[in-house]
Design brief:
- By secondary structure, this protein is of the alpha+beta class.
- The chain has one helix and eight strands, in the order H-E-E-E-E-E-E-E-E.
Length: 148
């Protein structure tokens, strides 16, 4: 019976041994490169509704529609969650106050009424951002501020 010889095993399986050595050395090299270039560092960003952002001053957006006394209008606007809202037969003057802690708000206000004069206004924290008027009978008006 033949004895076990390391030399005979190496002669028969040399390709497997070399492959294992190459993979081990390459894996070690890649791990060292990750440490050198800092790719193991974890970067995290705070979410918009996290505690870190709770100190942001609330933003107040005021929608207003004016017209002749006793006039009514159909008013459409986007609320603080960018959801469309509709108010039918609103007595003028009409206003809606939105409060948000989001950094921006897409403020969109549209109205159509039976007044001789119709005006819409968007005010953000007391500053008028958009104001428009029309003198058409049954006029349609829109105000917009993309970064309220």
């Amino acid at each position: 019976m033949k004895g076990f010889s390391v030399v005979s095993v190496v002669k028969r399986r040399w390709t497997v041994i070399v492959t294992v050595l190459v993979v081990t050395v390459a894996g070690f090299g890649v791990d060292r490169l990750h440490d050198v270039f800092g790719s193991n560092d974890v970067v995290s960003w705070p979410r918009a509704d996290s505690i870190e952002n709770s100190k942001f001053n609330p933003k107040q957006v005021l929608f207003e529609v004016f017209g002749s006394p006793g006039a009514v209008a159909t008013i459409n606007y986007l609320d603080e969650h960018a959801q469309p809202q509709r108010v039918d037969d609103a007595r003028l003057p009409w206003s809606q106050l939105l409060t948000t802690t989001d950094p921006t708000l897409f403020a969109d206000l549209r109205a159509q009424g039976d007044a001789d004069t119709l005006t819409c206004r968007i005010t953000v924290n007391g500053i008028v951002k958009d104001e428009r008027s029309t003198t058409n009978v049954n006029g349609y008006i829109s105000c917009l501020d993309k970064s309220a």
